[in-house]
Amino acid sequence: MTPGGGPGGAPGVPAGLDDWPGRELSDEELDVAYNVRRKAGPDLFARHMERYRAESDAAVDGLPGRPGVVYDEASGERLDVWGADGSGPRPAFVWIHGGYWMALSRHDSANMARMLHAEGVATVVPDYTLAPEATLEEIVRQVRASVAWVYRHGREHGLDPDRIVVGGSSAGGHLTGMTMVDGWQAGLGLPADVVKAALPMSGLFDLRPLTRVYVNQYVHLDVPRAAALSPALLPASRRVPAVFVSPEHDGLGFLDQSRRFQAHWGNGELLAVEGRDHFDVVLDLGDPDTSASRALLALIRAL
């Protein structure tokens, strides 16, 4: 869908899509709905970030892998492959980190690698150039290029290019959504079904509300660009199986976005996770007995 004003629509809003999430809220209310770092508070947020790095380090310690592979020559960005042990091509779970497109890295984002290795699955964790150094369009291009790398070069690293599942949290959930939609695969020489399933956690699927909150100081979106970068507004003729993970204590904006996009997608489950917030739900992927891990493994085993 191409952004642009429509008859009777607000300037810069696609025709027929005026009722976007949070349109009726004030800027202050939107900031509350989408500022999950403030919701957590500085002490809890810092503890979450410490756990991200510590649990990722522990998960990959001694694990077979190939870290630091350049997947995109244009940007020089790298990815890590974990848990491919030479026993044959393994399904590849491509995990895209969050951080509102402006924080975190692959080094904070591999906490699921050991659990998946034990289940016969490899983990691929790409970096991408952070905002504001890169535009959001460039970040999307890089993430899609990481999927293309897995498809083209995965077999050399013990990955099965025909069993690629993409997941991500928060901004990574948005980027996951941008691999689920149509219109990009052919340009990279990929089959339309290159992504076989998806696990967005606390994702952002309609970016228009973010033009009015603090994060826009870094991503610099206007409404037409936000619409063009919104999975909920883009064509998707093939609705891949998906689980939309929605933690109980997430920000209200993220809860609303997951609910709306799951209903729009139509081929997936909304998984409500009790007792978890926007940040610690990611850490559940390190434990095979959590609902998030069971959902991910079910997606992979169904391929």
From TrEMBL:
Keywords: Hydrolase. Gene3D superfamilies: alpha/beta hydrolase. Residues 86-180 form the BD-FAE-like domain. One of its GO terms (molecular function) is hydrolase activity. It comes from the Bacteria. Residues 1-24 are annotated as: Disordered. It comes from Actinomadura yumaensis. This is Alpha/beta hydrolase. Residues 1-11 have a biased composition (Gly residues).
